């Protein structure tokens, strides 16, 4: 057997073993394909707004560190979401950074993070990389919360953080409010925090934000990625002011760029355009659901997001067939046993959705 190279020896000494054994987050190449794999808003701004945004960004003082602009974004978002009195929000470079900041802030000795699974993979990954124990509680076979299992895990593990994705990724569904109420109460009794991850709020019929002020241990996290700014990377975390102030201490001082901040302010000033796009996506989702339910051998699960989870007889073959026909979706079968033979499909434009349906039919 060949001797390890000097670099391999160096990596073995200085890079954590759990990092070496972890796979990086994979992003599928999408050039030349109809891209329906990442829950992005498929609509671009109308050309007049594109020109106006370009001119505005050209005037930004990129020679200066972000300062007041981030405060302006926080204030504009607080007005936009009608942030309740006594609450505050902080900004992140997407909700991914906020998840990591929560792991850092809550990493007291013996701390754990709990979440239903299958769920957003970064809850587990962030816990692992920050040295916290992660506890995944399986959903039911119909992707509902298992109330008894969740409550038992909360009592047993006393998690510092419990994530409730609302709607969930990749299953796209909301959950029973009575079960969630019981979870919120149970976590509160154990002196932990509940984080409602509302990444898909523009497409959902319910939000926990109006109920947040009644619970000093509840945080609501959102991103503007699904709003239509996936390339801007802007997320925000809402909660009681005293709680947000503590979490904000671990945030780097200039985590949001001046260009990201200015693009966000522009988007909020033209929120009616993004609301129009979200309405089109919701309409397309309803139309797609009806079409998918009519296809033999396909089960389309309920969705309150801009994606639809499908179960087919052979997910790998269907995925490759669709890709060969120019349509890229996400094969999530390997993410969790409950997702066996499942594909996740982003709701696209009417034209993209028509191509997707044709590719799906031909690939089943």
What features would you highlight for this structure?
364 residues, alpha/beta, Aspartate Aminotransferase, domain 1, Aspartate Aminotransferase, domain 2, 2 domains, 7-stranded mixed sheet, 4-stranded antiparallel sheet, 43% helix, 16% strand
Q: Could you please describe the fold and organization of this structure?
A:
The longest helix is centred in the C-terminal third of the chain and has 23 residues, at 271-293. The strands form 3 sheets. The protein has a 7-stranded mixed sheet. The protein has a 4-stranded antiparallel sheet with strand order 9-10-13-12. Helix content is 43%, strand content 16%. It has 364 residues and is α/β, with parallel strands linked by helices. α6 (121-129) links the parallel β3 (112-117) and β4 (133-138). The chain has 2 domains: 31-47 and 272-363, Aspartate Aminotransferase, domain 1; 62-270, Aspartate Aminotransferase, domain 2.
Please outline the major beta sheet.
Answer: 7 strands, mixed
Regions with pLDDT < 50 over 5+ consecutive residues? none
Overall body shape: globular
CATH homologous superfamily designation of the largest domain: Type I PLP-dependent aspartate aminotransferase-like (Major domain)
């Amino acid at each position: 057997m060949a001797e390890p190279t000097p670099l391999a020896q160096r990596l073995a000494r200085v890079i954590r073993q759990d990092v070496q054994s972890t796979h990086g987050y994979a992003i599928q190449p999408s050039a030349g394909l109809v891209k329906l794999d990442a829950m992005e808003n498929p609509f671009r701004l109308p050309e007049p707004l594109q020109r106006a945004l370009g001119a505005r960004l050209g005037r930004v003082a990129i020679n200066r560190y972000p300062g007041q602009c981030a405060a302006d974004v926080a204030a504009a978002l607080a007005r936009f979401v009608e942030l309740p009195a006594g609450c505050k929000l902080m900004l992140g470079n997407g909700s991914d950074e906020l998840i990591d900041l929560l792991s850092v802030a809550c990493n007291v000795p013996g701390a754990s993070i709990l979440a239903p699974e299958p769920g957003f993979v970064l809850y587990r990954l962030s816990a692992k990389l920050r040295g916290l124990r992660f506890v995944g509680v399986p959903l039911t076979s119909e992707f509902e919360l298992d109330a008894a299992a969740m409550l038992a895990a909360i009592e047993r593990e006393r998690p510092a953080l419990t994530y409730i994705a609302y709607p969930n990724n990749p299953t796209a569904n909301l959950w029973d409010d009575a079960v969630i109420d019981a979870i919120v109460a149970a976590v509160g009794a154990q002196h932990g925090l509940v984080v409602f991850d509302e990444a898909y709020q523009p497409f959902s019929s319910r939000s926990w934000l109006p109920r947040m002020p009644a619970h000093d241990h509840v945080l609501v996290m959102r991103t503007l990625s699904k709003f239509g700014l996936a390339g801007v990377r802007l997320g925000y975390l809402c909660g009681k002011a005293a709680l947000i102030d503590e979490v904000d201490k671990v945030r780097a001082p200039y985590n949001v760029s001046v260009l990201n901040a200015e693009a966000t302010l522009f988007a909020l000033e033209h929120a009616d355009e993004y609301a129009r796009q979200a309405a089109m996506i919701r309409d397309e989702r309803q139309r797609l659901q009806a079409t998918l339910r009519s296809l033999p051998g396909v089960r389309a699960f309920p969705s309150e997001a801009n994606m639809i989870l499908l179960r087919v007889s052979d997910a790998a073959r269907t995925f490759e067939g669709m890709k060969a026909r120019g349509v890229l979706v996400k094969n999530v079968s390997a993410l969790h046993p409950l997702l066996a033979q499942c594909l996740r499909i982003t709701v696209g434009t009417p034209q993209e959705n028509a191509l997707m349906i044709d590719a799906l039919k031909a690939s089943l």
